Amino acid sequence: MIANYSVTTASLHDSQIDLSIPGIVNYKDKAYFGIDGRGIDAAMDKALKGYRLPIESIRRNLRITRKRSRGERPYSVMKRTFRGNHTFVTTVPRVRVKAVIAMGDLTCIE
């Protein structure tokens, strides 16, 4: 269930927006390696160039993957069904309205 979202320009990377809730575990993939958030950090470890991950980090990543996989499937269905991966409007307010309508929550329109 999506409880919080943010709409920004395409030039802003996802890692620069922190939607985590303080005190709650935040499971993140390898793209967010080394980025601190407000919640309890549970980002997957990433092997640096020329180095291998130790077995403890590999096992930790597998545990995180098991937790994250429950939310990945509904997200992919949402993207496919509502075409959430392509937005053909050009301003941030219009993108925000389109995202709210696609999620079916009209109470969040500012």
Structure description:
36% of the residues lie in helices and 7% in strands. The chain has helices at residues 55-82, 92-103; strands spanning 25-28, 40-43. The longest helix has 28 residues, at 55-82. With 110 residues, it is mainly alpha-helical. It has one domain (14-108). The model has no long low-confidence stretch (mean pLDDT 76).
Features:
110 residues, mainly alpha, single chain, two-stranded parallel ribbon, elongated, 2 helices
Short description:
This protein is mainly α. It has 2 helices and 2 strands.
Structural class: mainly alpha
**Low-confidence runs of at least 5 consecutive residues:** none
Order of helices and strands: EEHH
Mean pLDDT: 76
For the sheet with most strands, the description reads: 2 strands, parallel
Strand percent estimate: 5-15%
Cα Rg: 16 Å
Helix content: 25-40%
Number of domains: 1
Number of strands: 2
Distance between the termini: 20 Å
Looking at the structure, what is the overall shape? elongated
**Cross-sheet strand order for the largest sheet:** 1-2
